[in-house]
Structure prediction request, 350 residues.
Amino acid sequence: MSEDSVRPAPKHLAAVAEDAQEQPARRDWPLWEVFVRPRRGLSHGHVGSLHAPDAEMAVRNARDLYTRRGEGVSIWVVPSYAITASSPDEKDAFFDPAADKVYRHPTFYEVPEGAAHI
Amino acid sequence: MTDVAFVLALGDDALIAAQRLGEWSSRAPSIEEDIALANIALDQLGVARLLLTYAGELEGQGRDEDALAYLRDDHEFTNVHLVELDNGDFAVTMAKLLFLSAYQKPLYDELAASPDERLAGIAGKARKESAYHLDHSAQWTVRLGDGTEESRRRMQAAVDRLWPYTYELFETYDVRPQWTATVEDVLARATLERPADSQAPTGGRHGVHTEAMSYLLGEMQVLHRAHPGARW
Prediction:
């Protein structure tokens, strides 16, 4: 259950599904990423991952693992293999150019008092 | 006024079910299921504490939840046999939970409207938990029943083995029509056969238990009996 579980080069969807069918043992239960919405008006945020045989059980497992202290009002689960992640090798090309462009940051006006979630 | 024996019987069902489910802790087939079963065990324990505390007050002899849980012998417990039976394999555990929660859900639903406000409050809290226990066990029953040849064989064996013990559930409070509708629906979705009605073991409500009960109580009560009043 770590960020490492989202790998930059995911196996092809069909290949993973095929593996799962060939070996239905516990160790081959697919991995699911869990997103929880803490309350109305906020977005779902990634909270972790888990193993489950299918989507329905993944939602139930997520309920037990991540919302047992009343942390959420809604849960999404997504097969980890469906996530395409950026590669650590491309970090510089992806993110560095943004650093020196101050005009992209909304720092040139005052945020009105009482405006939440900005 | 609410009958002490009735509250005690429901409390004992929940307590013994919690103790059995707790045995899966660190031994479940997956860490996710481990936590799910522990959660369900804690739900049952929570309800057991409320019911036993209330039973002790109704009885009026100064016994609290601990006295009732730890200082009674097996013939003084009035839980049904279903909850005390060994866990068996995972299929047996799921069948036990399915049969139990399909009974507790309509039972608590009805008690939530009881004129006894204390009991209604406890049932109102417990019914939501029972709905989840029912959902969890139904999901697994369907997956195992309609799964591989091996999982189907085990699930059917579990249902067959436990079926006779389900009649006893309704001796105290008859919600068998709701129970039957729920369970038959799950079995149909799981492509499992509903066992034929047969002779039913009985006696739990009168303190007559299976051999498994003594071993269960031995483990549950040993610490409290060896160190009376022990605290963390």
